[in-house]
Write a structure and sequence with these properties.
By secondary structure, this protein is mainly alpha-helical. It has 20 helices and 2 strands. The chain has a single domain, classed as Amino acid/polyamine transporter I. The protein has a two-stranded antiparallel sheet with strand order 1-2. Helix 18 packs across helix 19 and helix 18 packs antiparallel against helix 20. The radius of gyration is 22 Å and the shape is globular. It binds phenylalanine.
C-alpha cells in the first residue's frame, strides 16, 4: 500500500499546501481584530511567542505521526499504539472533528462566495445594508453557491495530492499573497490609516490578562490547523527524505506573516472609515465582521475612489478570503477522504462521493438552522442560551474538542509512541536535528507544559460554554 501512496511533488508543494490549510478566515479577520482589541503590539508579541513555543512542537508531532505511519489519523493512532482500544477511540475523535468542522467552514465559505459574486456584480451598496446578511443566509441563492463550492472542492480533491491539492495551493497561495500585498498598500494610503497602524502596532501591555492569552493560544492553534488531523494527513504525503522541522517552521512563519499583514489591511481600513472608533465595540466574531461590518467600510471608500473602485476593492477582498477558505476546506475534507482510502481501500472518487453526500446533508441542515426550520434553529439549550445547530457544531468541535485533541496528541506522541520513535522520525532526514536545542525543547515541552496548557483550555471552555462558569474572567 505505502508503495503506491501518492506524495507531494516537492518540499515547496507541502509547505504551500500546509500553509494553504493554515491560512484561512481566522488569519484574515479573526486575528487582526483580536490583536487590535487586546493590546496591539503586546498581543502580536504574545501570539508570536505562543506560535513558536506551543504550536510549533504540536505541529511537528502531528507531521511526524503522519510521515512515520504514512497513514490517516485513525491508522496512525492504531499502528503506533499497537491497536490499543482507547487510542483508536482517540483516532476516531481526530477523524470526526475535521468532518464536523468542515461542515461549518463550508457554510461560511458559501457565504463568502455569495458576497464575492454580489460585490463583483455591483451589489456592494446592498451588501452594506444592515439587514442584508440576515436575508442573504436565508435566501435560496445559498443553495446555488453551495453547489459551486462543493464542485470546486471535489474537482481539486479528485485531482489527488500532487495534481489536486498541491497544484491548487501553488496557484492560490501566491495569488492570495499578491492580493493581500496590493490591498495593504492601498489601505495604507487612505486618510487616517496611520491612526489604525498605531492602534495595531503600539503595545499596550495593560490589556494582557489570562483570558487574552487563552484567546491568543486558541486562535494560534486553530490558525495553524492543529488538532484536526490535517497535519497528520499531510504529513503522510511527505517523502522520507524531507526535513520536517524546517518545513514546519516555514508553514508557521507563512501563516503568522499572513495574519500580520491582514492586520495591516483590516485595522487601518476600519480607522480610515471612522478614526474615533472604539475597538472594544468591534465584534469578536469573524463572521459578523466580514459580512456586516466590512461591507460598510468598502462602501464608504466610494467617497475616495468612486462606486466602481469601491466594488473592485471589495471584490478583491472577498476573492482573497475565498481563496484562503477554499484551500483550508480542501485540507480538512482530505482528512476523511484519506481515511476512507486508507482504511477501506476505496478509490478517491468513491470516498469523495460518500463524503460529499453525507456532509451535504449536514451542511444543508446547518443552512436551514438560521430560522428556517425551528427544530434546527433551536437545536439545544445550554448555559441558559438557545443554540442553532450551526452554533452547536462550532461550540463542540471548534471551541471544545480542538484543545482536547491537542492534549491527547501530546500524551500519545511522548508517552505512547515515545520520544525515541518521535525523535528518530525527525532525525532520519535531518541529522542536524539530532541533539539540537529544538529537539530538546520539543521533547520536554510536549511531555509537560504544552499538554497541561491545552488541558486547562479544554476545562475552561467546557465550564464556560456549557455551564456558564468562568475560571479566568
Ligand atoms: N487555519 C484555518 C483558519 O485560520 C482553520 C481551518 C483550517 C479551518 C482548515 C478549516 C479547515 O481559518
Amino acid at each position: 500500500m505505502s508503495v503506491l501512496k501518492e506524495h507531494f511533488g516537492s518540499r515547496l508543494g507541502f509547505v504551500l499546501a500546509a500553509a494553504g490549510s493554515a491560512v484561512g478566515i481566522g488569519n484574515l479577520v479573526g486575528f487582526p481584530v483580536a490583536a487590535a482589541k487586546n493590546g496591539g503590539g503586546a498581543f502580536l508579541i504574545i501570539y508570536a511567542f505562543l506560535v513558536l513555543c506551543v504550536c510549533l512542537p504540536v505541529m511537528l508531532a502531528e507531521i511526524s505521526l503522519g510521515r512515520n505511519t504514512q497513514q490517516s489519523p485513525l491508522g496512525a493512532y492504531r499502528t503506533l499504539s499497537k491497536r490499543s482500544f482507547w487510542w483508536q477511540l482517540v483516532g476516531w475523535l481526530v477523524l470526526v472533528t475535521p468532518y464536523m468542522i468542515a461542515v461549518f467552514y463550508m457554510v461560511i465559505t458559501v457565504w463568502i462566495l455569495g458576497y464575492l459574486c454580489e460585490a463583483a456584480t455591483g451589489q456592494l451598496s446592498a451588501l452594506a445594508e444592515p439587514e442584508y446578511f440576515g436575508q442573504f443566509v436565508n435566501s435560496n441563492k445559498i443553495f446555488g453557491y453551495f453547489a459551486i463550492v462543493v464542485l470546486l472542492v471535489n474537482v481539486i480533491l479528485l485531482g489527488g495530492v500532487k495534481n489536486g491539492i498541491e497544484r491548487a495551493a501553488k496557484i492560490m497561495m501566491p495569488a492570495l499573497c499578491l492580493m493581500l500585498a496590493g490591498l495593504v498598500v492601498f489601505v495604507l494610503t487612505l486618510d487616517n490609516a496611520y491612526a489604525g497602524l498605531v492602534y495595531y502596532l503600539v503595545p499596550d501591555f495593560s490589556k494582557i490578562n489570562a483570558a487574552v492569552i487563552n484567546g491568543a493560544l486558541s486562535q494560534a492553534f486553530f490558525s495553524l490547523s492543529l488538532g484536526m488531523g490535517i497535519m497528520i494527513t499531510y504529513g503522510s504525503y511527505i517523502s522520507r527524505h524531507e526535513k520536517l522541522a524546517g518545513s514546519a517552521k516555514l508553514v508557521a512563519a507563512m501563516d503568522t506573516a499572513v495574519a500580520f499583514f491582514a492586520g495591516l489591511m483590516v485595522i487601518p481600513a476600519i480607522f480610515s472609515f471612522n478614526p474615533n472608533i472604539d475597538t472594544a465595540a468591534l465584534s469578536d466574531s469573524s463572521v459578523a465582521l466580514i459580512f456586516t461590518f466590512l461591507p460598510k467600510i468598502f462602501l464608504a471608500l466610494q467617497a475616495v475612489i468612486g462606486y466602481v473602485g469601491a466594488s473592485v476593492v471589495a471584490t478583491l477582498f472577498f476573492l482573497l478570503v475565498f481563496f484562503a477558505a477554499i484551500t483550508s476546506l480542501v485540507s480538512i475534507t482530505e482528512v476523511p477522504v484519506s481515511s476512507l482510502v486508507n482504511e477501506r481501500g476505496y478509490s478517491r472518487g468513491r470516498a469523495l462521493l460518500i463524503l460529499t453526500l453525507t456532509m451535504a446533508l449536514l451542511t444543508i441542515a446547518c443552512i436551514l438552522s438560521f430560522g428556517r426550520v425551528a427544530f434546527l434553529s433551536e437545536f439545544m439549550v445550554y448555559a441558559g442560551q438557545s443554540k442553532a445547530l450551526f452554533e452547536v457544531i462550532v461550540d463542540v468541535f471548534y471551541e471544545t474538542i480542538l484543545p482536547l485533541n491537542g492534549f491527547l496528541l501530546c500524551l500519545f506522541v511522548i508517552y505512547r509512541w515515545k520520544k525515541q520513535g518521535f525523535n528518530a522520525e525527525l532525525e532520519c532526514s535531518d541529522p542536524a536535528y539530532k541533539g539540537s536545542l529544538l529537539e530538546r525543547y520539543v521533547n520536554v515541552s510536549l511531555g509537560t507544559f504544552i499538554p497541561l496548557i491545552l488541558l486547562l483550555i479544554f476545562i475552561n471552555t467546557v465550564l464556560l460554554k456549557y455551564f456558564g462558569i468562568s475560571l479566568i474572567g
